[in-house]
Amino acid sequence: MLEKDRLFNVLLSAFYSLTVASLAALGEQRLDLYISMLTLEYTVLYALLRPRRRWREVLLPFLLVVFSYFVVLRVIEVLGL
User: Over 5-68, what HEC string results?
Assistant: First the structure.
């Protein structure tokens, strides 16, 4: 079990670093894009590796709520409402 936890932490930090560096190199300024990409990476890794937690997972529901909020804002922007 400990190996899955370590793999999750190593992959998550590597993906986060790569994502932030790539978006910064592209000159991206929107904070919602950064948060959305990091949320998607966390969710996918969590679903694939299922790391063991001492307490209930509280970060994932919070991140999904924030992600949904940004998606709703983008949809409203596109629809022009």
Answer: HHHHHHHHHHHHHHHHHHHHHCCCCCHHHHHHHHHHHHHHHHHHHCCCCCCCCCHHHHHHHHHH
Kind plus residue range of the DSSP H or E element containing 3: helix 2-25
Query: What are the pLDDT digits (tens) for 16-32?
Result: 999 999 999 999 999 99
Q: Which two tokens stand for residue 7?
A: 């793999």
Q: What is the model's pTM? A: 0.82
Domain ranges of the chain: 2-79
